[in-house]
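Can't paste images in this forum, so I'm doing it all in text. The chain is below; anyone willing to post the predicted C-alpha cells underneath?
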Amino acid sequence: MILSDLLKNEVHDSEGRMLGRVIDARFVIDGAPGELLADARLAGFVVSPRSGSSFLGYERTADRRPWLIADLLRRRHRGSFFVAWDDIARLSEGRVDLRPGFQRRSPSLEG
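Text version of the structure:
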C-alpha cells in the first residue's frame, strides 16, 4: 500500500463511528544511518474530524508565525488527534479501523 492511498481515508472506531480522516503520517527514524538515510518506520496517523487538509506543519511546533495562518489552521483542525500504529486494527481501501480502547494523542510533537 502506498502512503498517498491512505491520506484522506475515513477513520472509524471499533463500533463503526466515523472519527475523521487521515491528514498526515508520522514516522520514527530507527537504527544507525545507512549509506543515505537511517531506516524509518510508520509510527501512526494524524486524524482530523473537520478537514481533509494538512496542518502544513503548524501542529509540530510552538512557533505560531505567521500567526494568522497558524490560527486559521488550529481552528480548522480543532479536535485532531494522533493515533499510534499499534491502535490500528485494519486498513482497507478508503478506510482505517481502530482497535477497541485506542488512545487519542496530541498531534503536536511536543506533547
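The mean pLDDT is 81. The CA atoms of residues 91 and 102 lie 15 Å apart.
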